[in-house]
Amino acid sequence: MVRAPCCEKMGLKRGPWTAEEDRILISHIQVYGHGNWRALPKQAGLQRCGKSCRLRWINYLRPDIKRGNFSREEEDTIIKLHEMLGNRWSAIAARLPGRTDNEIKNVWHTHLKKRLEQNHLAPEINGRSIDVSRFNHEFKTDPETVSSSNVVASGCDQIQEHRPVSPQRCSSDISSMTTVETSNNTCAKIENSDDFHEMDEVFWSEVLSADNSRAISDLSAIGTEPQLQFPFSPLIIDVEQVHAANSNMSDSMDFWYNLFTRAGELPELPEI
DNA sequence: AATTCCCTCAACCGCGATAGC
DNA sequence: GGCTATCGCGGTTGAGGGAAT
Fold it and tell me: Locate the Myb-like domain: which residues (predicted)?
């Protein structure tokens, strides 16, 4: 598609917002809401592009924005969440009421990264530090494994495809990868930590689908204990445990944290 | 007091995802 | 199903201000 010209090319204003512009934007949104950001500046009489208006509202003008320095508790939460989610700032922001992804990203780059470096704080699970570089190296795609089992999960952001495989071809190799049996007789391997972090919504919804019982019977049929294996510890999680967690899963982060703490593999979040 | 350096953070850019036609 | 418009996200930039020289 042809990208819309940027603000400057359209003769629209850029740079810092004035108090007057803020006032106009706030009062417009209070009256009309922000259904269509692209149309908003024209309706409100602002010489800004919709993108700029949206950003200004989200990051600065929203009434529920919490201003001021981050507390130690908030910083520790960000560090903890960053260990689990990586640079998914919006996901992290969703766990910190009143804070924006942009703000968290800034705080991470200006304070927390340095703090971690200074304190030599490596990410930890169950009290053991994780050498991420080693992890990523060891869990790189093994071409032979991938071709022989039609296993998926290439790329780093999402499981890209799920091909049906015979149960016998789904092997668990706890020393190198996580292998998970799903409800529709597909097999996926989590090849690196990024993949793991992305599994929660796409993949687990499949594992945890209504037909979950089949996943368990499938595993039993091939003589494998119904279990999900996670290479960090290694951590073993019963599929039934996953299933139980599904019933009260309010969101993926709660789900994962509860799951791991139930399995005794993650410490409770430290008291600040 | 003037200049330079460094840090912070608001704002922008580019791209992928998604909705709507 | 393909195309287009829009949104939302993560990475990056650069102005402004404080600290150091």
Answer: 9-61, 62-112
